[in-house]
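User: Can you predict the 3D structure for this chain?
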Amino acid sequence: MAQIPSAEARAGLKLISPTAIYVILLLAVPLATVLVYSILTGSRGNVSLPITGENYAELWSRPVYGYIMLKSLLVALTVTFITVMLAYPVAYFVSFHVKPERKSLWLFLITIPFWTSYIIRVSLWFVILGYDGVVDSTLMSLGFMDTQLNIASYSILSIIIVLAHAYAPFAVLPIFVSLEKVDRSLLEAGQDLGESRWSTFLRVTLPLSMPGVIAAALIVFIPTVGDYVTPELVGDGKEPMIANLIETQLLKLANFAQGSAFAVASMLMVGIVSVVFVLLNRRFIGGQK
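Assistant: Here is the predicted structure, written as structure tokens:
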């Protein structure tokens, strides 16, 4: 016989109901729609029965689609690696070398890029990397080169630079939180036992902060692999990524079934990599217990 929920349970259900409804309507329903569309027969502007696997077959049968997906994955992994490598020293400095009363100020300064629109930040990189930009003007004035580099014209390189800058604050904050949890007495004990600072960092600080590093990598990787704006604006859109391919199928070609299949394949790719990050995170957390 089913038990009647207690007053406390009913109160809890009422408390989470708005959030649950929001998640179902704005996340679960659209996701389910995409999944259903991806296995239906599509024509321009509509989808219909019968159920088919042609949409996924199209994805794997055409080399250009596989190339774009692989490129998106490699760009995202490269951006994630660069971002974490640049963010770790910043987080380490704030955590270990900034006075406690000034740490909030430093974190506040790190978030300053969020004060402006993402599109504006991307566009400003043209002033730095583009023809007659800051980089070219500086190098030419110093006599290091005679012609313009115009780095912005190198699509993949410029996309990586812009994305690494855009998502850097997302990497700094979780690493900083992880470093703040490191017990300083362990570091002192290591040095008392004759370990150098570098050895103490490698054997104590870095392993203890790895959950934050993995969290930062995951936070950067997920939005980067599906970024649409940067590949569209940087490098004249010559190097589209998976999000640009999905946009072309859904909006320009109105092929909802094919675009949905690409979206599902992209989510599966992100999901597999994310699971790897989560397993690594559990490994480091479990190793600390």
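The two ends are 42 Å apart (CA to CA). The chain is about 75% helix and 5% strand.
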